[in-house]
Design brief:
By secondary structure, this protein is an alpha+beta fold. It is built from two helices and eight strands; from the N terminus they run H-H-E-E-E-E-E-E-E-E. An eight-stranded antiparallel beta sheet has the order 1-2-3-4-5-6-7-8.
């Protein structure tokens, strides 16, 4: 009986020592690298049935370009918007995008996981992907 208790105590101690958590903090250069390493695109249908493609390219120098393409019946319309961007906090999970018209947009709860970029862009949940990662 004493041996069984000691055995379970030893097992418990060994298992608990393997439950250590590591603090994997992301610094600005790492977060920026993952955000800027590719062009992000999202294909969707808007609320009136028009097929659209939205693309973002973020540059390490804090500049970027958004391309928005609408495919309407027999015509395609593409608009290009230049912007400046910066991390909104030290947690590197929110981005402030300032367009050349001085219109500011918050890209909040940003998550970059290999070929997927998600978050809330101006309050709307978005999901971008990239197939062309190095």
């Amino acid at each position: 009986m004493k041996f069984t208790r000691m055995f379970f105590l030893l097992i418990t101690v060994c298992l608990l020592s393997n439950c250590e958590t590591t603090d994997e903090t992301v610094d600005g250069s790492t977060a920026t690298y993952y955000l800027c390493r590719t062009q992000w695109e999202s294909l969707f249908t808007d609320n009136i049935g028009v097929k659209c493609k939205q693309e973002f390219s973020f540059n390490k120098d804090g500049t970027g370009v958004e391309l928005f393409t609408a495919y309407k019946l027999s015509q395609t319309e593409t608009n290009e918007y230049s912007f400046n961007w910066s991390w909104a906090s030290g947690y590197f999970d929110s981005i402030i995008i300032t367009y050349s018209t001085n219109n500011r947009v918050l890209f909040d709860n940003v998550r970059v996981e290999y070929s997927v970029l998600t978050g809330y862009l101006d309050g709307n949940y978005v999901n971008f992907s990239s197939d062309g990662l190095p």
